[in-house]
Amino acid sequence: MSTITFSTLVIIPTYNEIENLPLITGRVLEATPDVRILIVDDNSPDGTGDLADKYAESNDHIHVLHREGKGGLLGAYIAGFKWGLERDYEVLCEMDADGSHAPEQLHLLLEQIDKGADLVIGSRYVPGGETVNWPASREYLSRLGNLYISFALGAGLSDMTAGYRAFRRSLLESIDFDELSKAGYIFQVDLAFRAVKEGFDVREVPITFTDREFGESKLDGSFVKDSLVEVSKWGLAHRAEQAKELASEVSRMASHELKDGKLQEGKKAVSVASNNMKDFLGEVSRMARHEWDSFKTK
Question: Membrane-spanning regions, if any (predicted)?
Answer without folding.
Answer: none
